Amino acid sequence: MPMIGNQLISLCRRSAVPTSFTLRFSHASLLPHRRARIKRIPLVACRTSFTAPLPSSSKLVVSGELKEFPLGMSDFREIRRVPGKAYFDKTEFIPELEQGAKIKLVCRPRRFGKSLTVTMLRYFHGSEFRDQYNELFQDLNVDKAVKNGIVRPGRYLILEFDFSCVDRSYNLNESAESLRRSINFGLSVFKVNYAEDLGESFASQTSNFIENDPAGNLISLVVAANLTLQGIHNRGEEHHPLWDVQGIYLLADEYDAYANEYMDPHDPRSWSDTEPFRVLKTFWSHVKAGGKWSYGIKQAYITGVTPLLLSGLTSGANDHENISFSPKISTICGLTRSDVLGALTVICDDKEKVQKHLRELEHHANGYHFCQERRVNPVFNTQTALSYLQSVKLQERPKTKNPPNSEVSEPFLRICAGAPAAVKDMQFALQKDEHGSYQKIPFEEVLLSFSLPQLNTEAAGEDDISAWRSLMVYMGGLTFDSDDPSKFIKIPNLVAATRFGSALLDRLGLYNSIKNTLYTLARTGNPMGALAAYCHLMRQYDVIGDAFLKNEGHHRSSIQVAILENPAIKPKAEFLVRKWTNNIGFVDLLITDNEKLYTVIEFKNIQIRYLGLTGEEDINKAERLKAMGLNKILGLKFRGDQFRSGTIRNWIDGKRNDSISGSVRKQLQSYIKGPTVQKEIADKNFRAFAVVIVGSRKILAREMDRDGNWVNDFKLAE
Fold first, then answer.
1. Mean pLDDT for the chain?
2. Separation between Cα atoms, residue 256 and residue 279, nearest integer Å
3. 558: burial class by Cβ within 10 Å (0-12, 13-18, 19+)?
4. How far apart are CA 81 and CA 222, in angstroms?
């Protein structure tokens, strides 16, 4: 039987002899018992390799028989000490984080396991945890690097801050006070943890912290620690517990979680003029200054969602490196396909179930590719995947459509939905290509640094929107295309796509009403409410660039994505039917519940440039069109269109004997009277609609019955 160290290892076993009782500690303790010695636990390592485009072995490690996945847990030591608790080994990245700039920023969307990485570094590098190394790390990937002398554990004093715990308040002065208290708390924990080893001189120098000056307190603490460590080395005290300590390792988790509540790209000065901004600016400038001493802040690992906050503080803290998209750490957060496949193999009793669950989870939650430079393994959101795996383990139905730990930040999405430049990308990305995949957006660069004023400038622009695209990549709405990451970004999965669609509606106050409208559509087959909502959305967002050049496919796809929120409706783009003439054709949208509901919608689009409207700019023409009534719109004439002439009314329902007159009516009739539709609708509640989008400002609709006759006159959906 293979061994790791002196421990027996069983590869990929579904069961194991229960291990001995293990002492458990409170969650995420920041006040550990000094040099506690804990009996080592025999571990079962599950490292299964599977075929994949970019193969990687599973990093699943579990003590004894796998009992549960660490949902909502972020304390590395607690996970490792609980028998039967799954852990996906990320320790291989510890040596890599020793390289490069002293201050490193790693950004990931929500729920990707950023905090677990922080606590992993705490327990590896903290001098107070040296005696727990064998218990926590001996069987993991980093142990090989330790034995080869590449990296050494327990050589830093850990100074840790968690900005997700700071109270948010509408009163910014109160909020700033909460921020100061949080920073001072991190400094106080450091003092408690290391007071014994740093001695009386350190305690004396840090005894008079000033409550309203956390940045000044930080420098006082760093200077005092530096003097003590320097004295130990100058005196040659080789037996001192801190003899081989190199300095301070600063860990800042969710560094922007607090500030994200206040930063608004549409009003950048509302943040930069606040007291919390000034507190943070001073704090990070002092973090930078803390690195100039021999035993000061030697390493800093910072996690967050975007680099936006640090970019706004660059005049104070510009000595850092954003390594978020480095290929060397692309999978530091998240689970790879092999990780998920290895876990499913352990908890499922047959291969068919493994593949079924893998396909479902990939469809809904996979596809995050955190590297622009080259192809790497894409990853699942950690908490979404763990939630799914735990449900499978408990033989419960996993939540896939709207998982409770979604990675896509809804507040960020609402911000993006307020920027026409970003909305243009969102609407394009929601469309599907001929293979059913989300459209790829060409791009030049995802920025490692950008600012609120830059986002504000680009919000209504038509050219460079690199900052907005970067923001959407960082927050998890978009990701680098796994096939060609240096040229394209795209929506990673169905959950992200659905959240995008919801954000567009929510920004306009349509989310609740559209859900009711769509349920009405599911019951009656009448799409007028949904079309009216889309008309409202279209008027708000189709205002810049080539917004007025959209075709039928663009509009149809946007509407189709909106109804993805309704599980009772099953839309099918380009559903194949046979025309009355027996030629092959395509219905634009079929809405069916596969029981009684059967609604056919044929979309047509008239770009504003082909309408006889006066004016130079499309946006001015659009405003005049928006004010027109039904009869005036039907009377508008085509101009400059090589395929259509005469009035809109004649093109839709004219009776002249030519190819243009009544062409919309004839096309819809051919679908309805064809054998495919007639067979399908024999025992169903059938409705059919011709829908004409006019200049991205008006939507005309007219209903037709199962015999191909108009049911009523034209209507405006608004």
1. 83
2. 13
3. buried
4. 32
DSSP 126: B
Tokens of 536: 């409202």
672-682 tens-digit pLDDT: 998 888 988 88
Burial of 463 (0-12, 13-18, 19+ CB in 10 A): exposed
Buried b / exposed e across 107-133, counting CB within 10 Å, b at 16+?
bbbbbbbbbbbbbbbbbbbbbbbbebb
Q: What is the C-alpha to C-alpha distance for residues 577 and 584, in angstroms, rounded to an integer?
A: 7
Strand order across the 488-490 sheet: 441-442, 488-490, 479-480
| pLDDT 10s digits, 221-269 | 999 999 999 999 999 999 999 999 999 999 999 999 888 888 888 787 7
**How far is 701 from 526, CA to CA, in rounded Å?**
11
Burial (0-12, 13-18, 19+ Cβ within 10 Å), 17: exposed
Q: Which amino acid, 672?
A: I
Of 33-47, 364-378, 497-511, 522-536, the range with the highest mean pLDDT is 364-378
Q: 170: Cβ–Cβ under 8 A, 6 or more apart, which residues?
A: none
pLDDT of residue 16: 32
The Cα–Cα gap between 185 and 187 comes to: 5
Its pTM stands at: 0.79
- Distance of alpha carbon 331 from alpha carbon 379, whole angstroms: 7
Sign of the dihedral through C-alpha 338, 339, 340, 345: positive
